[in-house]
């Protein structure tokens, strides 16, 4: 199929919550190398609360409703910088697709761009500062390029996943310019960025779940 039914796709977010739960310790371990080590715990807290409220595995909720719920929980329940950033990301994406019945590749691209714009409006972070934007920006761009060269939705999601993994890997060689890790200067090189890592996990999970709906 070329599109999926937005109104019955709440499961996409339910599946994402499991990915964050599974990676709780890993994300905190990465954060602990250059920061305060709370990223996995914070993320798990918000995503677990969302999971508990998505009755029946998200069935009966639209993707927009499920993302709105997640965004609201992240904005209100998670401290630090990541709650507002991811909260805004999911709220903006929810709003972008809220009125649509079916989601095709161009709709999905528009949704990702809306989420990205929401984050960029909050932070002055540049590409190369070693943050989640170093995954989100190239991944969305890769998805857009894949569509521009004629790949279908499913194949472009494969491209998105590859870009997310590769760009996450690339953050290891970057020097942190913002956040707690920036205090380390050059010594932040050689470690993954925690936000970039959770962003790559989120994008891969969204892509996997949407591909399952398309097939
Ligand atoms: Mg932290």
Properties at a glance:
9 helices, 215 residues, binds magnesium ion, mainly alpha, Serine Threonine Protein Phosphatase 5, Tetratricopeptide repeat
Structure, explained:
This protein is mostly helical. The chain has a single domain (4-214), classed as Serine Threonine Protein Phosphatase 5, Tetratricopeptide repeat (Alpha Horseshoe), CATH 1.25.40. It is built from 9 helices and 2 strands, in the order βαααααβαααα. It has helices spanning 11-22, 24-34, 39-53, 63-77, 82-97, 105-122, 133-148, 153-170, 194-214; strands at 4-5, 102-103. A two-stranded antiparallel ribbon has the order 1-2. It is globular, with a radius of gyration of 16 Å. The model has no long low-confidence stretch (mean pLDDT 95). Residues 31, 35-36, 38-39, 80 line the site of magnesium ion. Magnesium ion binds at residues 31, 35-36, 38-39, 80.
Instruction: Give the radius of gyration.
Output: 16 Å
Report how far the terminal alpha carbons are from each other.
6 Å
The CATH homologous superfamily = DhaL domain
At CATH's second level, what is the architecture?
Answer: Alpha Horseshoe
Portion in beta strands: under 5%
Poorly predicted runs of 5 or more residues: none
- Mean pLDDT across all residues, rounded? 95
User: What's the domain count?
Assistant: 1
Oligomer: single chain
Overall strand count: 2
The CATH topology name reads Serine Threonine Protein Phosphatase 5, Tetratricopeptide repeat
Main-sheet strand order equals: 1-2
Structural class category:
mainly alpha
Give the C-level CATH assignment. Mainly Alpha
Instruction: Write down the secondary-structure element order.
Output: EHHHHHEHHHH
Percent helix: 55-70%
Distinct small-molecule ligands in the complex: magnesium ion
How is the biggest beta sheet arranged?
2 strands, antiparallel
Form type: globular
Helix count equals: 9
């Amino acid at each position: 199929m070329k599109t999926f039914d937005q109104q019955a796709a709440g499961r996409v977010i339910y599946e994402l919550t499991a990915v964050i739960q599974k990676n709780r310790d890993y994300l905190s371990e990465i954060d602990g190398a250059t920061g305060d080590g709370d990223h996995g715990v914070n993320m798990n807290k918000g995503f677990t609360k969302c999971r508990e409220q998505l009755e029946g595995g998200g069935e009966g909720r639209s993707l927009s409703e499920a993302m709105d719920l997640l965004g609201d929980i992240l904005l209100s329940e998670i401290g630090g910088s990541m709650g507002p950033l991811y909260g805004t990301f999911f709220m903006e994406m929810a709003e972008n697709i809220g009125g649509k019945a079916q989601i095709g590749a161009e709709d999905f691209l528009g949704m990702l761009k809306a989420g990205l714009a929401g984050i960029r409006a909050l932070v002055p972070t540049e590409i190369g500062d070693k943050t989640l934007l170093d995954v989100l920006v190239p991944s969305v761009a890769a998805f857009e390029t894949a569509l521009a060269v004629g790949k279908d939705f499913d194949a472009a999601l494969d491209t998105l996943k590859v870009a997310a993994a590769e760009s996450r890997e690339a953050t290891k060689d970057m020097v942190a310019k913002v956040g707690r890790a920036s205090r380390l200067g050059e010594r932040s090189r050689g470690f993954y960025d925690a936000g970039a890592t959770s962003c790559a996990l989120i994008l891969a999970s969204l892509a996997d779940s949407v591909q399952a709906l398309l097939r």
